[in-house]
Design goal:
The complex is a heterodimer of chains A (114) and B (115). By secondary structure, chain A is an all-beta fold. Chain A is 0% helix and 42% strand. Chain A has no helices and nine strands.
Amino acid sequence: DAKTTQPNSMESNEEEPVHLPCNHSTISGTDYIHWYRQLPSQGPEYVIHGLTSNVNNRMASLAIAEDRKSSTLILHRATLRDAAVYYCILRDPSTRGSQGNLIFGKGTKLSVKP
Amino acid sequence: NAGVMQNPRHLVRRRGQEARLRCSPMKGHSHVYWYRQLPEEGLKFMVYLQKENIIDESGMPKERFSAEFPKEGPSILRIQQVVRGDSAAYFCASSPPNTQNTEAFFGQGTRLTVV
């Protein structure tokens, strides 16, 4: 399985930008990079995903390194509601069928201070 | 369009009983995934199903655990003869057919407590 490495935890101040890093040095050419987050006592929630180009949506931005061995999730203005565990995930390339499942690591626990 | 629905939200079972966890995917979704999350840990993949087929069950314990996704009705994760170590949150996710690398939508989970 392709693996990712993330810091265990990060802190941010409210209304400041947050850059959450992820290393994925064994990524294959067809792996997409997905980000999910899990708020306390809830199921995971999709944030963003990309392949090679940087991506933006209403929740966040995803910056992907040119060699694709790392990526950064950017929250432009952190709020208290963004406190969650953020997971960087590569689509599992070894699963049969038309879609691979999502392999979760330990993620980064983001704390947001008022 | 309702989201992924899991029930019950909380389930308490005595050791040795059976636990049945239900997952109704989003309308139009034919791919279902089950994950288990132990306290203070990340999600562990258990099984990936399409309608009436198990595609990947590499994360399922070999004994006591089974999953199905019938043509009609919800997906069921069944745990027979539960033990204390089965206490965890079980999450279901669904995604639409015939697409690659789309997002998966997760339910709120079923929290199983074995006493």
